[in-house]
Each structure stands twice: as C-alpha cells, then as structure tokens.
Please model this.
Amino acid sequence: PIKLCMQVFPLLWSTVSHHSLSHISIQRAARRRSFSGVPKFSDLRLCGLSIGSRKFRNMAQPQTVNLVQLLSACVGLAKLAAHEIREVAASGDLGADKKDAQGNKVGTVSKAEVEAGADAVTRADLMAQKIIEGSLHHHFPGLRIIGEEDIEEKDFLVKPVNKDLLSNVTPHNGFVADVPLADVTVYVDPLDATMEFVIGNKFCTIALIGIAVRNEAIGGVMCQPFEGGHEGRTLWAMVGFGAGDDCTDPNKNVLTTPRPPHRKESVLVTTRLHNSPEVEKALNLIKPGVDTVVRVGGAGYKVLALLEGTADVYLYPTPGTKKWDTCGPEAILKYFGGRATDCTGKELGYLPEVPRVNPSVLASRDASSHDRFVSLLLGKSNV
Model:
C-alpha cells in the first residue's frame, strides 16, 4: 500500500494542481455542519475523485459548459422532480422529519410543530434532489452543485436529459453560451416551502434550480408541481438568452402579464411562518411605500408573486433564506426587469465560498423602484 501511494500521489497532485476550482463539488455535509463556513477539505471531491472511496472517476473533465444545454437539462429535471413530489403527496406518507439548525434530521415532525416554526424535510425533498443532483453530475461531469439536502453519491438517481430542449430559442445579441466550467455553480432547492407542503398549502411548493456564473445569478427554473396541468407549471429564464412559461392563464403567465399590473395599490409579500420583532420593525419602516402586506410561504412563491404582478416587493429582513432559495428566482426576476439584494442594497452574491445564508432579502418587481425601498428600510426616505 505504501509503495502504491508513493506512485499515485504525485500523479494525483499534478492533476489537482492543474485543475481549477470548477472541479470541486461541495458536499452538503459541509454545509450542514456550518451554514456560514467554508467547506472542509475532507468534504470536497477533487477533479472527479471520490476521496472517501479512493475511486478515480472522469479525471479528464471538460473545461467549458454550454449554458443553454445546462438550462435545458435543468428544465427537464425540474419537471421530473415535480413528478416525484406529486407521487409522494399522493401516497399520503410524506415521511416528514424535523431538521435542527445544522439541517440534520432529529425525528418525525407534526403539522402543529411545523405551524409553530419547526423546519422539516420530507421524502419528496430527498427524492427530488437525488434526481436533480445525480443527473446533473452524470451529464455535466465536474459541475459544481450546491443543494439543500444531504444526498450521498451512492443514492444519486440518474435520469436522461434533453440538452437540446431550448436549442430553437434565439438568444439576445451578445449572449455567450460557452463559459468556463470553473465559473459555474448550480444551486438546487428540490422543494421550496417544505413547511407549507407538510401543512397542506401545496400551491406554495416549487422546485427551484438556479445557475450562477461567478457571483451573479443568471439562469433559473421554477416548477410548481400542483399548479397548471398534470405536469405542473414550469417557468424558466436566462439573462441575455430568453424565457418561457407554460402557464395557460394569460393573467399569470409571466410572458403576458401586464407590466405594470392593472392595480393602483402597492403590495408587499413577506413571511407567514417566521414572523419576529425584526420583521415587524422592517415592515413599519417600509410601510410608507406600500399599501397592503400579504403573508405567504416560500421564497420562490414570493418572487413568483412579483413575476405574476400580484405583488411589487418581497421583504425578508433577517437571516434565513439560503442561496438555493434565491438564485433561480433572482435570475428570472432580473430577466423580467426586477432586482434582488439584501435590505441594505448589497447584491446577494453566489460565489461558492460565500456563506450559504443570505443576511436578508429585498426583491422588487421593478428595478427602478428598488432603491426607494432600500432607502425606506435604512430610514433615509419618507416616500
């Protein structure tokens, strides 16, 4: 064994040193131990090498990734994830467990506990992530993926994908599809609004996939399993490329929703299950700029309200939402002229080494009104 290690280690080190950080796939275990920390070396897979099993896989990784092919795959996988979510819901056994502050399962959880604020994970969350993460790793070797749930590689589910699904879309002038693999991170929330799902408010449930290039959210997919037709409703967009929405209701379809909406009052959406004195304080600061406050669950669903025109601003003034909650929705919102930052106006940022928890979230349907809401929250404006 010692002789073998002496032979293999120089080759391994040479390979690692010549590969960029694009080939580091961050394990959810690292995130679970510390939401705000940088992953430990022992929790990394380098260059397709599974350190725990000492098994070499795909040492020669591609150096670029085609964003249109990646988005195409994500659209299809979000639909497959939505199918699994519907199947679990139809079974009547959600397999709901409580999660602690580090995301570890600590026993079963009741609807009453969830209503009181307990975090939860279900079989639907886990099945959806197994499909999305397992398939993306298989079809895009070396892709960096950061997801909400802890999935072991042995439990990945690989499904076929259609990389040409969006090949007939004409991109905007200047759009560049092929980018360095090292610059791309995919954020996955397999079932956003799990708490609402457990309670029974399934309309809030959305499978979210976000694509970030360096620090910027540039692409996203949102799939509602229980809305639209028998396959749900899927909305996607990529900055500089295009967008799609298979919703048949023209008043909800984001491609046909009136901009601005046909209403006079300004509507704010905020958290339903995570109220606190800090939330109420922020609402009092921003109220001069809004007429109505609506409380709903799910970060994705709140952004969807902005996209559909039923709300103008989304506020979550405390830490809580994660990068996988906001990456995809922010990219779609940006494509349609909106903006998302923290409550001080700072960009949320999606570099893989940044803390997973957003310090706060402020999103506006119209980017031109965003600074006014920031000023209200900072106490710098009365209008």
Summary: Residues 67-91 form the longest helix (25 residues).
